Amino acid sequence: MAGGSSPPPGSDRYGNFSCLPSPLSKKTPPLPWTSQETVSLIQTYREKWYSLNRGPLKANQWEEVAVAVAARCGFDELSKTSTQCRHKIEKLRKRYRSERIKPYPNSWEFFELMDHMERGPSPIAACPVAMVMHPNSNLYDSSDRYEDENDDGYGDSGFEQNNLNCSDNNGANDPSDGEGGDWDSKLAGEIRGFAEEFMRLEKKKIEMIMETEKWRMEMEKRKTDMILETQMKIANSFSRIFEQQNKRLKMGI
Questions:
Q1: pLDDT for 111-133, tens place per residue?
Q2: Myb-like domain spans which residues (predicted)?
Protein backbone atom coordinates (compact mmCIF):
# COMPACT_ATOMS: atom_id res chain seq x y z
CA MET A 1 0.00 0.00 0.00
CA ALA A 2 1.29 3.37 -0.96
CA GLY A 3 -0.17 5.12 2.05
CA GLY A 4 1.09 2.50 4.54
CA SER A 5 3.89 3.41 6.93
CA SER A 6 7.27 1.84 6.26
CA PRO A 7 8.79 -0.45 8.94
CA PRO A 8 11.34 1.10 11.28
CA PRO A 9 14.99 0.79 10.30
CA GLY A 10 16.54 -2.51 11.30
CA SER A 11 13.20 -4.40 11.35
CA ASP A 12 11.64 -6.76 8.84
CA ARG A 13 8.42 -6.08 7.02
CA TYR A 14 6.43 -7.49 9.92
CA GLY A 15 7.94 -5.05 12.40
CA ASN A 16 10.20 -7.56 14.13
CA PHE A 17 13.53 -6.17 15.32
CA SER A 18 15.49 -9.37 14.90
CA CYS A 19 17.69 -7.68 12.33
CA LEU A 20 19.08 -5.11 14.80
CA PRO A 21 22.79 -5.54 15.55
CA SER A 22 23.37 -7.45 18.74
CA PRO A 23 25.01 -5.55 21.60
CA LEU A 24 28.77 -5.89 21.99
CA SER A 25 29.70 -9.09 23.80
CA LYS A 26 31.52 -8.70 27.10
CA LYS A 27 35.22 -9.48 27.24
CA THR A 28 35.81 -13.13 28.07
CA PRO A 29 37.52 -13.41 31.45
CA PRO A 30 40.90 -15.14 31.35
CA LEU A 31 40.96 -18.82 32.18
CA PRO A 32 42.60 -19.76 35.47
CA TRP A 33 45.98 -21.44 35.46
CA THR A 34 46.04 -25.21 35.34
CA SER A 35 48.52 -27.21 37.39
CA GLN A 36 50.29 -28.27 34.20
CA GLU A 37 50.69 -24.65 33.09
CA THR A 38 51.92 -23.60 36.54
CA VAL A 39 54.55 -26.36 36.68
CA SER A 40 55.71 -25.50 33.15
CA LEU A 41 55.91 -21.81 34.08
CA ILE A 42 58.01 -22.46 37.20
CA GLN A 43 60.42 -24.72 35.32
CA THR A 44 60.73 -22.37 32.34
CA TYR A 45 61.18 -19.27 34.49
CA ARG A 46 63.76 -21.02 36.68
CA GLU A 47 65.87 -21.92 33.64
CA LYS A 48 65.64 -18.38 32.23
CA TRP A 49 66.27 -16.75 35.63
CA TYR A 50 69.33 -18.88 36.33
CA SER A 51 70.73 -18.16 32.85
CA LEU A 52 70.61 -14.46 33.79
CA ASN A 53 72.37 -15.10 37.13
CA ARG A 54 69.07 -14.45 38.91
CA GLY A 55 68.70 -11.08 37.25
CA PRO A 56 65.38 -9.49 36.22
CA LEU A 57 63.77 -10.61 32.96
CA LYS A 58 63.10 -8.10 30.21
CA ALA A 59 59.85 -7.86 28.26
CA ASN A 60 61.07 -9.95 25.31
CA GLN A 61 62.35 -12.61 27.70
CA TRP A 62 58.93 -12.84 29.36
CA GLU A 63 57.49 -13.39 25.87
CA GLU A 64 59.94 -16.26 25.40
CA VAL A 65 58.74 -17.70 28.71
CA ALA A 66 55.10 -17.52 27.56
CA VAL A 67 55.96 -19.31 24.30
CA ALA A 68 57.93 -22.01 26.14
CA VAL A 69 55.06 -22.60 28.60
CA ALA A 70 52.63 -23.16 25.73
CA ALA A 71 55.10 -25.49 24.01
CA ARG A 72 55.66 -27.55 27.15
CA CYS A 73 51.93 -27.93 27.63
CA GLY A 74 51.51 -29.07 24.01
CA PHE A 75 49.49 -26.04 22.87
CA ASP A 76 49.68 -24.78 19.30
CA GLU A 77 48.93 -21.23 20.44
CA LEU A 78 49.65 -19.16 23.51
CA SER A 79 47.48 -19.99 26.50
CA LYS A 80 48.92 -17.23 28.70
CA THR A 81 50.50 -13.89 27.84
CA SER A 82 53.89 -12.63 28.97
CA THR A 83 52.16 -10.27 31.40
CA GLN A 84 50.15 -13.11 32.91
CA CYS A 85 53.33 -15.19 33.30
CA ARG A 86 55.08 -12.36 35.10
CA HIS A 87 52.12 -11.71 37.40
CA LYS A 88 51.77 -15.43 38.12
CA ILE A 89 55.43 -15.68 39.19
CA GLU A 90 54.93 -12.70 41.51
CA LYS A 91 51.90 -14.37 43.10
CA LEU A 92 53.67 -17.71 43.40
CA ARG A 93 56.54 -15.99 45.21
CA LYS A 94 54.13 -14.31 47.64
CA ARG A 95 52.39 -17.63 48.29
CA TYR A 96 55.76 -19.37 48.75
CA ARG A 97 56.89 -16.81 51.33
CA SER A 98 53.66 -17.20 53.30
CA GLU A 99 53.79 -21.01 53.12
CA ARG A 100 57.46 -21.19 54.11
CA ILE A 101 56.90 -19.68 57.57
CA LYS A 102 54.21 -22.20 58.52
CA PRO A 103 55.37 -24.58 61.29
CA TYR A 104 53.62 -27.69 60.00
CA PRO A 105 54.67 -29.74 56.93
CA ASN A 106 53.60 -27.92 53.79
CA SER A 107 50.94 -29.44 51.57
CA TRP A 108 50.97 -26.81 48.79
CA GLU A 109 51.61 -28.75 45.59
CA PHE A 110 54.08 -26.21 44.18
CA PHE A 111 56.09 -25.65 47.36
CA GLU A 112 58.95 -28.02 46.48
CA LEU A 113 59.34 -26.54 43.00
CA MET A 114 59.32 -22.97 44.33
CA ASP A 115 61.66 -23.86 47.19
CA HIS A 116 64.09 -25.51 44.78
CA MET A 117 63.91 -22.46 42.50
CA GLU A 118 64.43 -19.84 45.23
CA ARG A 119 67.15 -21.70 47.13
CA GLY A 120 68.98 -22.92 44.06
CA PRO A 121 70.37 -26.38 43.32
CA SER A 122 71.88 -28.05 46.36
CA PRO A 123 75.60 -28.89 45.94
CA ILE A 124 75.23 -32.14 47.89
CA ALA A 125 72.12 -33.36 46.10
CA ALA A 126 72.65 -36.38 43.88
CA CYS A 127 69.72 -35.48 41.65
CA PRO A 128 67.31 -32.56 41.26
CA VAL A 129 64.10 -32.46 43.24
CA ALA A 130 61.38 -34.31 41.38
CA MET A 131 57.93 -32.82 41.04
CA VAL A 132 55.24 -35.28 42.04
CA MET A 133 52.21 -34.65 39.88
CA HIS A 134 48.91 -35.09 41.65
CA PRO A 135 46.04 -37.01 40.09
CA ASN A 136 44.27 -33.71 39.41
CA SER A 137 47.27 -32.24 37.56
CA ASN A 138 45.06 -31.38 34.58
CA LEU A 139 42.66 -29.44 36.78
CA TYR A 140 43.01 -25.77 37.56
CA ASP A 141 45.70 -24.54 39.91
CA SER A 142 44.18 -24.59 43.40
CA SER A 143 46.15 -21.50 44.36
CA ASP A 144 44.13 -19.42 41.89
CA ARG A 145 41.46 -18.92 44.51
CA TYR A 146 43.89 -16.67 46.37
CA GLU A 147 44.75 -14.64 43.30
CA ASP A 148 43.27 -11.99 41.06
CA GLU A 149 43.80 -13.11 37.50
CA ASN A 150 42.47 -9.93 35.84
CA ASP A 151 45.65 -9.37 33.85
CA ASP A 152 45.94 -6.90 30.99
CA GLY A 153 46.88 -7.87 27.46
CA TYR A 154 44.63 -10.95 27.26
CA GLY A 155 42.63 -11.56 24.11
CA ASP A 156 38.92 -12.40 24.00
CA SER A 157 39.59 -16.07 23.46
CA GLY A 158 42.79 -16.19 25.46
CA PHE A 159 44.61 -18.08 22.70
CA GLU A 160 45.36 -15.34 20.16
CA GLN A 161 48.72 -15.72 18.46
CA ASN A 162 49.14 -11.93 18.22
CA ASN A 163 49.71 -11.86 21.97
CA LEU A 164 53.30 -12.60 21.07
CA ASN A 165 53.64 -8.93 20.16
CA CYS A 166 52.31 -7.71 23.49
CA SER A 167 54.99 -6.31 25.78
CA ASP A 168 55.00 -4.83 29.24
CA ASN A 169 57.04 -1.68 29.60
CA ASN A 170 57.58 -2.47 33.26
CA GLY A 171 58.94 -5.91 32.50
CA ALA A 172 62.41 -4.64 31.72
CA ASN A 173 62.95 -3.51 35.27
CA ASP A 174 60.75 -5.69 37.45
CA PRO A 175 62.01 -5.43 41.05
CA SER A 176 60.15 -8.55 42.10
CA ASP A 177 62.22 -10.79 39.81
CA GLY A 178 65.14 -10.79 42.21
CA GLU A 179 63.21 -10.75 45.48
CA GLY A 180 63.98 -14.37 46.26
CA GLY A 181 67.65 -13.93 45.41
CA ASP A 182 67.84 -10.69 47.39
CA TRP A 183 66.29 -12.36 50.42
CA ASP A 184 68.72 -15.28 50.15
CA SER A 185 71.63 -12.83 49.80
CA LYS A 186 70.51 -10.96 52.92
CA LEU A 187 70.16 -14.22 54.84
CA ALA A 188 73.61 -15.35 53.68
CA GLY A 189 75.02 -11.98 54.72
CA GLU A 190 73.48 -12.30 58.18
CA ILE A 191 74.88 -15.80 58.59
CA ARG A 192 78.30 -14.65 57.37
CA GLY A 193 78.26 -11.73 59.80
CA PHE A 194 77.29 -14.01 62.68
CA ALA A 195 80.08 -16.45 61.75
CA GLU A 196 82.64 -13.64 61.58
CA GLU A 197 81.56 -12.29 64.98
CA PHE A 198 81.71 -15.79 66.44
CA MET A 199 85.21 -16.32 65.05
CA ARG A 200 86.32 -12.95 66.41
CA LEU A 201 85.07 -13.84 69.89
CA GLU A 202 86.71 -17.26 69.71
CA LYS A 203 90.00 -15.67 68.65
CA LYS A 204 89.74 -13.21 71.54
CA LYS A 205 89.00 -16.05 73.91
CA ILE A 206 92.04 -18.01 72.71
CA GLU A 207 94.24 -14.91 73.08
CA MET A 208 93.02 -14.43 76.65
CA ILE A 209 93.70 -18.08 77.46
CA MET A 210 97.20 -17.79 76.01
CA GLU A 211 97.87 -14.59 77.99
CA THR A 212 96.61 -16.23 81.17
CA GLU A 213 98.77 -19.29 80.57
CA LYS A 214 101.79 -17.11 79.88
CA TRP A 215 101.22 -15.17 83.12
CA ARG A 216 100.78 -18.42 85.06
CA MET A 217 104.03 -19.81 83.68
CA GLU A 218 105.86 -16.60 84.64
CA MET A 219 104.47 -16.81 88.16
CA GLU A 220 105.51 -20.46 88.40
CA LYS A 221 109.01 -19.55 87.23
CA ARG A 222 109.27 -16.75 89.80
CA LYS A 223 108.05 -19.10 92.49
CA THR A 224 110.62 -21.71 91.51
CA ASP A 225 113.39 -19.10 91.44
CA MET A 226 112.42 -17.85 94.89
CA ILE A 227 112.43 -21.39 96.30
CA LEU A 228 115.82 -22.13 94.76
CA GLU A 229 117.22 -18.83 96.04
CA THR A 230 115.91 -19.54 99.53
CA GLN A 231 117.35 -23.02 99.48
CA MET A 232 120.72 -21.64 98.36
CA LYS A 233 120.70 -19.10 101.20
CA ILE A 234 119.87 -21.81 103.75
CA ALA A 235 122.58 -24.06 102.34
CA ASN A 236 125.13 -21.24 102.50
CA SER A 237 124.14 -20.46 106.08
CA PHE A 238 124.63 -24.08 107.14
CA SER A 239 127.93 -24.18 105.28
CA ARG A 240 129.24 -21.12 107.15
CA ILE A 241 128.13 -22.57 110.48
CA PHE A 242 129.95 -25.84 109.79
CA GLU A 243 133.08 -23.96 108.75
CA GLN A 244 133.07 -21.93 111.96
CA GLN A 245 132.61 -25.05 114.07
CA ASN A 246 135.48 -26.76 112.26
CA LYS A 247 137.76 -23.78 112.91
CA ARG A 248 136.91 -23.79 116.61
CA LEU A 249 137.58 -27.51 116.85
CA LYS A 250 140.95 -27.13 115.17
CA MET A 251 141.91 -24.25 117.44
CA GLY A 252 140.91 -26.26 120.50
CA ILE A 253 143.12 -29.15 119.45
A1: 889 988 988 765 444 444 444 44
A2: 32-93
Give residue 2's pLDDT.
46
Tens digits of per-residue pLDDT, 42-74? 999 999 999 999 999 999 999 999 999 999 999
With a CB cutoff of 8 Å and minimum separation 6, the contacts of 61 are 48, 52, 171
Q: How many helices (H) and strands (E) does the chain have?
A: 5, 0
d(C-alpha 58, C-alpha 51), whole Å = 13
34 - beta bridge partners?
140
* Cβ pair 93, 146 in contact under 8 A: no
CB 163 within 8 A of CB 46: no
Question: CA dist 224 to 1, 125, 210, 231, Å?
Answer: 145, 61, 21, 11
Most confident by average pLDDT, 14-18, 147-151, 242-246? 242-246
pLDDT in tens, 160-194: 434 444 344 444 444 444 555 577 777 888 888 88
Strand stretches in the chain, DSSP E? none
Amino acid 17 reads: F
What size, in residues, is the chain?
253
Cβ-Cβ contacts under 8 Å for 115 (sequence gap 6 or more): 96, 100, 129
Residue 167 near residue 64 (C-beta atoms within 8 A):
no
Give percent helix, percent strand, percent coil of the chain, each to the nearest 5. Answer: 60, 0, 40
* Percent of the chain residues past pLDDT 90, beyond the cut: 30
* CA dist., res. 137 & res. 109, Å (int): 10
Q: With 0-12 CB in 10 A as exposed, 13-18 as middle and 19+ as buried, what is 140?
A: middle
